[in-house]
């Protein structure tokens, strides 16, 4: 039985495995003790891992043929006689190692591995992350299931369009970003995830839940946030690129006709590389280098503006429906005088075809919302009046009015009706007509929520879908007897 583990290292998915049939202890080294990494005693060979992957369903089984044999050095819990087995490795009672008495500590061990490029790793993780066992001879380790969850997030971000293009310097991609460069001074066109709102929260939860094995490339362990960023960046780029290349006519740059110019702008080379299999962008001359640096800076500023900074509060928008207007009618009493009562039955003026009054306005109230407890709201009117300023200062927010104005400024890109209110000294709400409220429910609200802002809607809006339902019914044909009559 194999226990297959995964780790994202050097810009690729690496699979290695423990073999229950292997020796439980490591061979002692002759001579003086050495700190050099030793071969893992019960790590499976690369061809054994490839055979286990090949038993999976098509077309994932073909990925084993595209893998590259490699060797990793991992820091694993061990005692003096060898590494400790993972919880997923099952050994028969007769092959169980003797319980050691020494204290367990991290030690460096060399393990054979199969390396998959991000595109192949994305497809492979979609199968390895399933709950069922991988055939009769292998089970998934916790690190494999974790990487499958990261791949699922990457695919979801790409499918929902929560990505932005970027121009990355290849030298800076090695290591922390999880992508290895091919040379100094090179650039690559990449798709980067845009994390905000629920997506940012999901990424934070994944960083906290990262298994130690996914950070085992160094003695102290790589920072979880750095490992997750590199893994998610690479898998999101692979998912977005796969989606674009699978669609006919999805090229961002039209095919040139006629003579090719002497020099193609860097921006055009970058746009073409976003939908090609090869992400590298050729930068050959000093003019190309200056143009690439300027394009890279502009794209980074674009992405920074799209991501809402993570903090203790966020700007919130609450849609408030108008109160139902009930007209008053005069009803004569026994004494001959008249009293005014609400027209609940709808018999007053305008109930029988008379001109009705204009639709009452809707309102979008502005507020600050706690990111840790969304039930805590500070209305904008209280922000400007200074109500509860002491409580917010205790939470680390000394200037809530600046937090509110900064959030409103970012949200105005998605909520055009907000521009008029921002011209006032103390914006507290936005007034909308019925058409504007419908547009907020269907378009503006989801955009604001996806960008990381808080959005509160009436209860009925979350339970029903807005639309128009028309039912038609054909009239009954009269029988021949009835017509004769």
How are the elements arranged and paired?
Layout: E1 2-9, E2 12-19, E3 38-39, H1 46-54, E4 68-79, E5 82-83, E6 105-116, H2 118-128, E7 138-140, H3 142-159, E8 163-169, H4 170-173, E9 187-193, H5 198-208, H6 224-245, H7 266-273, E10 280-281, H8 286-306, E11 313-320, E12 328-332, E13 338-342, E14 362-370, E15 377-379, H9 380-385, H10 389-394, H11 400-411, H12 418-422, E16 429-432, H13 434-450, E17 454-456, H14 459-463, H15 480-484
Parallel strand pairs: 1-7, 3-6, 11-17
Antiparallel strand pairs: 1-2, 2-6, 4-5, 4-6, 8-9, 9-10, 11-14, 12-13, 14-15, 14-16
Give a brief outline of the structure.
Helices cover about 35% and strands about 20% of the residues. It is of the alpha+beta class and about 475 residues long.
Total individual domains: 2
The helix/strand class is: alpha+beta
- Quaternary structure state of the chains depicted: single chain
Described by the principal axes of the CA atoms, the overall outline is globular
Strand content: 15-25%
C-alpha-based Rg, rounded: 32 Å
- Please describe the biggest sheet, giving its number of strands, its sense, and whether it closes into a barrel: 7 strands, mixed
Number of distinct helices: 15
Query: Alpha-carbon distance between the termini?
Result: 87 Å
Q: Note poorly predicted spans.
A: 174-184, 481-485
Average pLDDT over all residues: 80
Number of strands: 17
Helix content: 25-40%
Care to describe what's here?
It contains 15 helices and 17 strands. With 485 residues, the protein is α+β, with helices and mostly antiparallel strands. The strands form four sheets. Strands 1, 2, 3, 4, 5, 6 and 7 form a seven-stranded mixed β-sheet that branches. Strands 11, 14, 15, 16 and 17 form a five-stranded mixed β-sheet that branches. A hairpin with a 2-residue loop joins strand 4 (68-79) and strand 5 (82-83). Helix 3 crosses helix 6 (224-245).
């Amino acid at each position: 039985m194999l226990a297959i583990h995964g780790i994202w290292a050097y810009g690729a998915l690496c699979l290695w495995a423990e073999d229950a049939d292997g020796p439980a202890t490591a061979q002692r080294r002759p001579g003086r003790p050495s700190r050099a990494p030793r071969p893992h005693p019960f790590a499976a060979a690369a061809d054994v891992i490839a055979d286990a992957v090949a038993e999976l369903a098509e077309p994932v089984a073909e990925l084993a043929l595209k893998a590259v044999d490699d060797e990793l050095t991992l820091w694993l819990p061990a005692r003096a006689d060898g590494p400790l087995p993972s919880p997923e490795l099952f050994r028969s009672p007769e092959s169980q190692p003797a319980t050691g008495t020494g204290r367990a500590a991290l030690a460096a061990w060399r393990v054979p591995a199969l390396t998959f490029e991000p595109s192949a790793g994305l497809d492979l993780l979609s199968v390895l992350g399933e709950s069922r066992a991988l055939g009769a001879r292998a089970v998934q380790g916790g690190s494999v299931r974790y990487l499958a969850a990261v791949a699922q997030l990457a695919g979801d971000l790409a499918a929902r369009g929560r990505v932005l293009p970027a121009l990355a310097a290849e030298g800076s991609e090695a290591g922390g970003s999880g992508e290895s460069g091919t040379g100094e001074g090179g650039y690559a066109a990449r798709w980067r995830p845009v994390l905000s709102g629920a997506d940012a929260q999901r990424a934070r939860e994944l960083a906290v839940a990262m298994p130690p094995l996914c950070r085992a490339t160094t003695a102290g362990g790589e920072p979880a946030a750095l490992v997750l960023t590199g893994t998610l960046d690479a898998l999101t780029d692979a998912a977005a690129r796969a989606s674009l290349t699978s669609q006919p006519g999805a090229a961002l740059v039209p095919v040139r006709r006629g003579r090719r110019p002497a020099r193609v702008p860097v921006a055009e080379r970058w746009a073409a590389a976003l939908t090609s299999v090869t992400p590298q962008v050729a930068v050959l001359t000093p003019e190309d280098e200056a143009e690439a640096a300027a394009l890279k800076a502009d794209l980074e500023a674009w992405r920074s503006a799209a991501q809402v900074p993570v903090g203790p509060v966020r700007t919130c928008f609450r849609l408030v429906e108008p109160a139902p207007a009930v007209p008053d009618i005069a009803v004569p009493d026994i004494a001959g005088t008249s009293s005014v009562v609400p027209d609940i039955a709808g018999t007053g003026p305008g109930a029988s075809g008379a001109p009705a009054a204009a639709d009452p306005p809707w309102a979008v109230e502005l507020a600050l919302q706690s990111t840790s407890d969304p039930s805590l709201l500070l209305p904008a009117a209280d922000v400007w009046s200074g109500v509860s300023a002491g409580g917010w200062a205790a939470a680390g927010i000394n200037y809530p009015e600046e937090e509110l104005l900064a959030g409103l400024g970012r949200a105005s890109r998605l909520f055009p009706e907000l521009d008029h209110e921002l011209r006032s000294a103390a914006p507290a709400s936005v007034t909308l007509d019925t058409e504007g409220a419908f547009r907020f429910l269907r378009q503006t609200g989801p955009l604001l929520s996806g960008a990381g802002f808080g959005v509160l809607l009436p209860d009925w809006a979350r339970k029903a879908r807005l639309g128009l339902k028309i039912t038609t019914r054909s009239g009954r044909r009269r029988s021949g007897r009835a017509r004769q009559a």
